[in-house]
Amino acid sequence: MKTSINPPKNEWLALLERPTQTIESIEETVTAIFDDVKRNGNDGIKRYTSIFDGVELDELFVSEEEIIEAEKLVSNELKDAIAIAKRNIENFHAAQKTDKVAIETTEGVECWQEKRPIQKVGLYIPGGTAPLFSSVLMLAIPAQIAGCKEIVLTTPPNKRGKVNPAIIYAAQQCGVTKIVKVGGIQAIAGLTFGTETIPQVYKIFGPGNQFVTIAKQLATKYGVAIDMPAGPSELLVVADEAANASFVASDLLSQAEHGSDSQVILVSTSKEKLQEVEDEIYIQIEDLSRKNIAKKAIDNSKLIFVETKEIALDLINEYGPEHFIVCTNDNDFYVDGIENAGSVFIGNYTPESAGDYASGTNHTLPTNGYTKAYSGVNLDSFLKAISFQKISEKGIQNIGKSIEVLAEAEGLDAHKNAVTLRLNSLK
Amino acid sequence: MKTSINPPKNEWLALLERPTQTIESIEETVTAIFDDVKRNGNDGIKRYTSIFDGVELDELFVSEEEIIEAEKLVSNELKDAIAIAKRNIENFHAAQKTDKVAIETTEGVECWQEKRPIQKVGLYIPGGTAPLFSSVLMLAIPAQIAGCKEIVLTTPPNKRGKVNPAIIYAAQQCGVTKIVKVGGIQAIAGLTFGTETIPQVYKIFGPGNQFVTIAKQLATKYGVAIDMPAGPSELLVVADEAANASFVASDLLSQAEHGSDSQVILVSTSKEKLQEVEDEIYIQIEDLSRKNIAKKAIDNSKLIFVETKEIALDLINEYGPEHFIVCTNDNDFYVDGIENAGSVFIGNYTPESAGDYASGTNHTLPTNGYTKAYSGVNLDSFLKAISFQKISEKGIQNIGKSIEVLAEAEGLDAHKNAVTLRLNSLK
């Protein structure tokens, strides 16, 4: 691990730098596959599924039989755990519903804002070694609460053309309307253009590797919105004497096991605690099944000592971590002062994995410094705000003159005229 | 004008198609300017300002003297009109503030969501013939209410290196912290990378021509968020016997004067009203100062007759207009049923220009069908939602087991271990 003691402010940027990825070569691949899927629809989708996933698909959708089979294959223990996570996620996201905002800005001028669901959304769930059914919960639950009509989930099939039963089961629990057995760039292309059978959607959500990330970015050029740009997962912990070093070490390791490019940072105002946590990490890491992955991430991780909590907070806001654990004897200081973070975990008994699975908060969060401008996925991610206005005869008489003056000053006669005609009719 | 009578549903897509723009050649220019500004900072900015705006700038910022001068140059009548618009916009956007959303999802598991301002934002205001100070109000007012610390406005200078006084005055009224005399691609590049004197921002807002639009899209590749993709402005009016044809014509013309690529559509269940409005348009257009621009847009505009309001609503939701005026004898039907629109104007006395300037709603709205997934600019556009969680010893005992089961099923041992350690410590 790399330890920095009192790094000067002008070195923070370099110290906190995330690994950059070169994307030029990927872009060409992504563009080619998009063009192909746009032209050839399902044939293109199937071709790339054969190339990248090594399976010839006859049928692109999970069938009714596969849904029934999945239900049988998932253990009752897992079903119960999913039910508890689902209930908490539902409660937290349902609480985010906002009422219509309505005011009369001037007598006779009623303005209001209402949120309406995005009608068609696509949820991307990565394949690979771990079946990320927790991401299904995190995306499908708010989509369902928002009232999205069409919720299309895409996920890569395995070599036998099957989707992991836990993913199918979770999708069924949360109102997903279609499960497409397609992953990677071709899945994003399918959702972007639509095919003979895959619906075109208006917004695409979900994590993915570099290829999926670039594909989502390309999708925005074709008029499809995306949840956010993605990057490797990150955790920053601020800890002092109040923190349990063993717990902190376990949290840093839970981040490190995600991948060798995971970002793991510990900031402390206590040199003793830094050392204690480091020692604990090297003890705990030995027992992990993903030890090799975790070791690489830990080698690149950073232990940073700073003199005061004010400096610590400045540095943390400069970094803007995706996950931020606060375990100090003045947690309120950090909670009140944090400007840039995705999700914040407070106190010794709040591990990051609680938010990853079951506390109720969403785990789809901005990385790579995007916390400075982006929210994590929440109920509003599946809604858009529409504004309404209704002006009475009295109302247009109250604000008409101002509109005329403003429109004229901007040189827009017809804008002015639309008001003048109405005002004249009321004389 | 082009009249369609009862277009069949399978022809709607073609009928409602927006003009597509080719962007490949622009992209090269934008990329070259971005690279230059990234490398050369203010020197690059000044070079392109010289090339595109025809002025050699010594100083990139509007000075204290220019601010004082602007205040003198703006008429009292315009100041009063700006004050009224500002008050309404402030009221409507302040009403959009949301409280902290806090719930205990399980006993001992507190979750909450709080919104915090985006610290640094850039507002782009186009130059050209009309000084769009109204866009200054629409962007700076919510930024100020949100609590953004740095609000940087950029706008192109005229040939004498000056910024329109109404823009400077409006910016001063709304808490803009810096006004940069730079427009076009180089302005967006400056906000994206920062220069010796221009601050790097986290999110860029505002309208602009094709170059600015592509530049904003490129900015997202460098980690800067943008408000939304932009396209030519649009208005769709639905009108029947209840509508005043003269008013409707004036609204369609106020849209048409924006530019020859403006989208103007009238949908009606009354053939008589369609004809009446068309006749009125040809009468009113003659008196407009921007007659030539408006005529081109009107030539391409569409009058669509459909048999029922249900069909009309379907068609309107398929199109997803930026501005949507409803003037019928069943306005509630449309207001309740609209799924995709930016801003909705209801009744005979609610011209679009009211929302453009002074009713209080925002005029920065999604075009080009983006209403299907994007909100217009609103208070939330300047905030991001952060989630927080605080779990007690009791809380982790309540949900710990579920997290262990879920983490194990996803093959993430270290995630499980972070919970197991805590549960064991409580045994």
Q: Specify Rg of chain A, calculated over alpha carbons.
A: 25 Å
CATH topology of the largest domain in chain A: Rossmann fold
- What is the terminal separation of chain A in angstroms? 79 Å
Overall mean pLDDT of chain A: 95
- Backbone shape of chain A: globular
Structural class of chain A: alpha/beta
- Classify the oligomer: homodimer
Percent helix of chain A, as a range, is 40-55%
Strand-residue proportion of chain A: 15-25%
Largest sheet of chain A, if any? 6 strands, parallel
Number of strands of chain A: 14
List the strand order in the largest sheet of chain A.
Answer: 1-11-10-9-12-13
Count of domain modules of chain A: 3
Q: Outline the low-pLDDT stretches of chain A.
A: none
Architecture (CATH level 2) name of the largest domain in chain A: 3-Layer(aba) Sandwich
Please write the CATH class name of the largest domain in chain A: Alpha Beta
| Number of alpha- plus pi-helical segments of chain A | 17
CATH superfamily of the largest domain in chain A: Nitrogenase molybdenum iron protein domain
* Most residues in contact, chain pair and counts: A-B, 130 and 130 residues
In short:
The structure is a homodimer of 427-residue chains. With 427 residues, chain A is α/β, with parallel strands linked by helices.
What labels would you give this structure?
homodimer, 427 residues, alpha/beta, Rossmann fold, Single alpha-helices involved in coiled-coils or other helix-helix interfaces, 3 domains, five-stranded parallel sheet
